[in-house]
Amino acid sequence: MILAFLYPMIGGTLPCFVISRLRRLPNPWTLYAWRAGVMTAMIGSLMRGALEIYGTTNRLTAAYPIRCGALCLAGALGYLIAPQKMMERGKIARLCKSIARSMILRYFLF
Questions:
Q1: Under a CB-based contact definition with an 8 Å cutoff, are residues 95 and 19 in contact?
Q2: What is the dihedral sign for C-alpha 23, 29, 33, 38?
Q3: Which CA distances in Å does 34 have to 3, 20, 54, 72, 102?
Q4: Are residues 104 and 8 in contact, defined by beta-carbon separation less than 8 angstroms?
Q5: What is the number of alpha carbons within 13 Å of residue 96 lying toward its C-beta?
Q6: Which residues fall within 8 angstroms of residue 93, CB to CB, at 6 or more apart?
Q7: What is the C-alpha to C-alpha distance for residues 54 and 51, in angstroms, rounded to an integer?
Q8: Which of 7, 10, 42, 76 has the smallest CB count inside 10 Å?
Q9: Closest by alpha carbon to 98, among 5, 44, 7, 26?
Q10: Rounded Cα–Cα distance for residues 48 and 51 (Å)
Q11: pLDDT tens sequence across 33-83
Q12: Rounded alpha-carbon distances, angstroms, from residue 59 to 18, 47, 87, 91
């Protein structure tokens, strides 16, 4: 729970790094799947931390890492398989800024 901020930070910078290296525009659905996976990891971490503070455990918290992995895998495979357009450097920078901004805003809105 203490390191819950790392999920959106790493989950937001990793796709930006890959997009900037491959210079391919991602499909919006792949970004949605990836972002949902990152948010699932963050919420799972917060839930597990809250239960640990309360002094109890729950077997249902084991579902969060599985669903996070499935969603992130779906987003990564969608990015690699789906047809995409090539991008210029200016568009890459704008896309990475918008991804980072949305991940930070979602972190603080929850």
A1: yes
A2: positive
A3: 19, 16, 30, 5, 12
A4: yes
A5: 20
A6: none
A7: 5
A8: 10
A9: 26
A10: 5
A11: 888 888 888 888 888 888 888 888 888 888 888 998 999 899 888 888 876
A12: 34, 12, 44, 44
pLDDT exceeds 80 at position 10:
yes
Select from 35, 13, 28, 26 the least CA-distant residue to 80: 26
Give me 65's structure tokens.
Answer: 């890492």
List of residues 6+ apart from 64 with CB closer than 8 A: 40, 41, 43, 44, 45, 47, 48
Q: Counting beta carbons within 10 angstroms of the beta carbon of residue 101, is it exposed (0 to 12), middle (13 to 18) or buried (19 or more)? A: exposed
Q: Which amino acid, residue 84?
A: Q
Residues in the chain: 110
pTM, full prediction: 0.70
